[in-house]
Design a protein that fits this description.
Layout (H helix, E strand, L loop, with lengths): L1 E5 L2 E3 L5 E8 L7 E7 L6 E6 L6 E3 L7 E6 L4 E6 L8 E9 L3 E4 L3 E5 L2
Length: 116
């Protein structure tokens, strides 16, 4: 089982980034998917989640209206479009897959830094 994030980097405040997460080794379309983020000394917190079919999404209050989660089950991919980025969005972003029957998988994380 693998979840591999990509797309992180350094961006100026107000800019945009698109994170991608590629899943392999499991039945991707049967898992709800989500993005979490973590800063040093803090617990990992939910950013956004999406159901198996991709037609229902939810967001953390701090990113509502700025971030959009989506998925492509044919490609085993989940995305996080991040717009109007702020310095407080700086964190390591993690992809997570959840199945009630089987369990939870995590990716290794990708660093996002928002700074001028």
């Amino acid at each position: 089982v693998q979840l591999v994030e990509s797309g992180g980097g350094l961006v100026q405040p107000g800019g945009s980034l698109r994170l991608s997460c590629a899943g392999s080794g499991f039945a991707f379309s049967y898992y709800s998917m989500s993005w979490y983020r973590q800063t040093p000394g803090q617990e990992r917190g939910l950013v956004a989640g999406i159901n198996t079919g991709g037609d229902s999404a939810y967001y953390g209050d701090s990113v509502k209206g700025r971030f959009t989660i989506s998925r492509d089950n044919a490609k085993n991919m989940v995305y996080l479009q991040m717009n109007s980025l702020k310095p407080e969005d700086t964190a390591v972003y993690y992809c997570r897959a959840d199945s009630e029957d089987i369990g939870t998988y995590w990716g290794q994380g990708t660093q996002v830094t928002v700074s001028s």
